[in-house]
Design goal:
- The protein has about 400 residues and is α/β, with parallel strands linked by helices.
- It folds into 2 domains: about 150 residues, FAD/NAD(P)-binding domain (3-Layer(bba) Sandwich), CATH 3.50.50; about 140 residues, FAD/NAD(P)-binding domain (3-Layer(bba) Sandwich), CATH 3.50.50.
- It is built from 11 helices and 29 strands.
- It has a 6-stranded mixed sheet with strand order 5-2-1-9-23-22, covered by helices on one side. A 5-stranded parallel sheet has the order 11-18-12-13-14.
- The structure holds flavin-adenine dinucleotide (FAD).
- Flavin-adenine dinucleotide (FAD) binds next to helix 1, strand 2, helix 2, helix 7 and helix 10.
- The site of flavin-adenine dinucleotide has 33 residues, from helix 1, strand 2, helix 2, helix 7 and helix 10.
């Protein structure tokens, strides 16, 4: 094979780290590298809840791809992937097609809606920069409308978060800071506004350490967040939701419903015909799609089982980054004519969930619990470390979070 063509789909954590590693690992004449992405920027998905609440501007979250990828070395194709044809080694884009010798699929996640009635039509999801900024503007517009309506439209001031998992909790934390600012801006008494988190499990943050969950709930409640636990979201209407607990249904007015309870892999991988579970492909140890030695799958599109508990690793940025590092290494081996590929072994460094300005909870260093400002500092260190890995000191100085003790 002369100068193999490597095509990387998606400039998320998985696609970007694969690209920047490969541009360092491979010589200029060893391979042609193409990165395909919808936009000319990469965004930090893990900060989108801040953009959606309006506590952080989205320009802070996004990074121009050309700021970290050498475009003399890597071809950037700004286009939308429509479908994959593995048998023909082809990718169909909205505006053309590409062929490849090796493909890396890093197309990320979609919201899993579990068939809840009206959810797709009437709820928002925190998926990307566009959806985050729409949520911010939608909530702000409804607050602006409130004092212009003849009737008391409580639905405009009720914000419902579907799911008290990681994303739902982090978003609630940001709203705890943002809502008082909006109330001041639009002359609305704070006590008129409700932030309601609906969670089907009997606890918030299912699977997290109990003491940390208690801390998170107490803190968020002190910020005015209400929890409806053990409660199913049954239906989302234009101006209300229907929830059910112990077979009793309740209708709650709300025109601000944000669904944050579950993700699945990008539907393109399922439509390709790969065997999937919740849209994620169960990849081999070296991160290739079963039966396709020329296709690597990274990030939220890939499913890897934790041998210790026989459950899939959760889809996280942390795992996407580590998978991308192994994928880049394995591609280098293949380009150099080798065949012995590295197996992926995740090194879990802990989990930290932010609760808003200067507050977080987390478990790090193999089990150490962190609360409050210490966890918040740790969260910023994790965020800054990623920037350093992606684009060195220059990117860290440009986009890093240095307001260590506050927002
Ligand atoms: C609000 C929020 C907070 C989170 N917090 C954390 C956290 O604290 N820690 C953690 O580890 N994880 C966190 N996660 C999860 C983490 O963000 C994901 O696991 C991670 O983003 C997955 O990376 P990825 O590379 O697979 O995809 P993504 O980062 O989603 O990137 C996918 C890329 O593909 C592009 N793309 C998608 N479809 C197409 C197409 N058809 N054509 C072209 N381009 C396309 C997108 O534009 C995007 O650039 C959080 C997620 C959310 C939503």
């Amino acid at each position: 094979m002369n100068r193999p063509k490597i095509v990387i789909l998606g400039a998320g954590y998985g696609g970007m780290i694969t690209t920047v590693k490969l541009q360092k690992m491979l010589g200029r004449n060893e391979a042609d590298i193409t990165l395909v992405n919808k936009h000319n920027y990469h965004y930090q998905t893990t900060w989108l809840h801040e953009n959606a609440a309006g506590t952080l501007h989205h320009d802070h979250t996004r990074i121009k791809i050309s700021d970290v990828v050498d475009l003399n070395r890597v071809e950037l194709v700004q286009d939308t992937v429509v479908s994959l044809q593995p048998d023909e080694k082809k990718v169909t884009l909205e505006n053309g097609e590409l062929t490849y010798d090796y493909l890396v699929v890093g197309l990320g996640f979609e919201a899993a809606t579990f068939g809840i009635q009206g959810l797709l039509e009437n709820a928002f999801t925190i998926n990307n920069i566009n959806s985050a900024r729409l949520i911010r503007d939608h909530i702000e517009y409804n607050f602006a409308r409130y004092n212009n309506e003849k009737e008391d439209r409580q639905d405009l001031l009720n914000i419902v978060i579907g799911g008290a998992g990681f994303t739902g909790i982090e978003f609630a934390g940001e709203l705890g800071n943002r809502v008082p600012e909006l109330c001041k801006e639009y002359d609305i008494p704070r006590e008129k506004v409700r932030i309601i988190t609906v969670e089907a499990s009997p606890t918030a943050l299912p699977g997290f350490d109990e003491e940390l969950v208690e801390y998170a709930m107490n803190y968020l409640e002190s910020q005015g967040v209400e929890f409806k636990l053990g409660t199913m979201l049954k239906q989302v209407n234009e101006n209300s939701i229907i929830v059910e607990k112990d077979e009793q249904q309740e209708e709650i007015p709300s025109s601000n419903v944000i669904w944050a309870a579950g993700v699945r892999g990008n539907s393109i991988v399922e439509e390709t015909g790969f065997e999937t579970a919740r849209g994620r492909v169960k990849v081999s140890e070296d991160l290739r799609a079963p039966g396709h030695d020329d296709i690597f799958i990274v990030g939220d599109c890939a499913l890897i089982m934790d041998k210790e508990n026989d459950r899939p690793y959760p889809p996280t940025a942390q795992i996407a980054i580590q998978e991308a590092e192994v994928t880049a290494h394995n591609l280098k081996t293949l380009v150099h004519g080798g065949s012995k590929l590295e197996a992926f072994e995740p090194e879990l460094q802990g989990t930290v969930a932010s609760l808003g300005e200067g507050q977080a909870i987390g478990v790090v260093f193999g089990g150490k619990k962190l609360f409050g400002w210490k966890a918040s500092v740790m969260k910023k260190i994790i965020d800054n470390r990623y920037l350093l890995k992606l684009g060195g000191v220059g990117l860290l100085l440009k986009k890093g979070k240095f307001n260590i003790f506050t927002k």
